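so i finally got all the pieces together for this one. its two components total, 224 residues if u count the protein bits. some of the lines might not be protein, just check the labels. i wanna see the whole assembly predicted at once instead of chain by chain like last time, that was a mess tbh
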Amino acid sequence: ETGVTQTPRHLVMGMTNKKSLKCEQHLGHNAMYWYKQSAKKPLELMFVYNFKEQTENNSVPSRFSPECPNSSHLFLHLHTLQPEDSALYLCASSQTGTPAFGSGTRLTVV
Amino acid sequence: EDKVVQSPLSLVVHEGDTVTLNCSYEVTNFRSLLWYKQEKKAPTFLFMLTSSGIEKKSGRLSSILDKKELFSILNITATQTGDSAVYLCAVEVNSGGSNYKLTFGKGTLLTVNP
């Protein structure tokens, strides 16, 4: 148990659906991250939040919309996704040291 | 653009073998280099390296960083089937002020056969 909890574990959605991924950390960290892990590609940083403020948007398409209501919670809102968006979405949090990762949400877009 | 390159991309060995995984990087504002092990979902932290030439050890695993030549190696001795996993190398950089971000390599898929 890393202290970072992601839900749901698996998600299948159609291209016209709207869904949200949730991440929660109980570590008192002030930074939270969304990463995308596609097959045979490196982990790609999507968004970074520090003290609830977005400090990095790595040229992510607008069909992915993050929300950070407080330092413990991070959401990724999804709408009109494409099949190539199917991947493992990992949330991480950190303070000044090494990030801790959640178990991820395996997303399949059909 | 920050770049992290791992080699080999995959490796198959027999139990008891020793393996060396490589990670080279080209980044701006280097802060640290991290190794993670990813078996099913969440990458789990192995080592964080900030200084050159100082070996970090944890059981059969060890790692060292060379900041002059911009690379790190991860050694695993007397491998076991439980070592089968993807090993990820990541470099942490300062992205401005007190903000930091990780850039990952593609990973090395290690398979240890009995």
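The longest strand of chain A covers residues 18-25.
Chain A has a mean pLDDT of 91.
anyway lmk what u think
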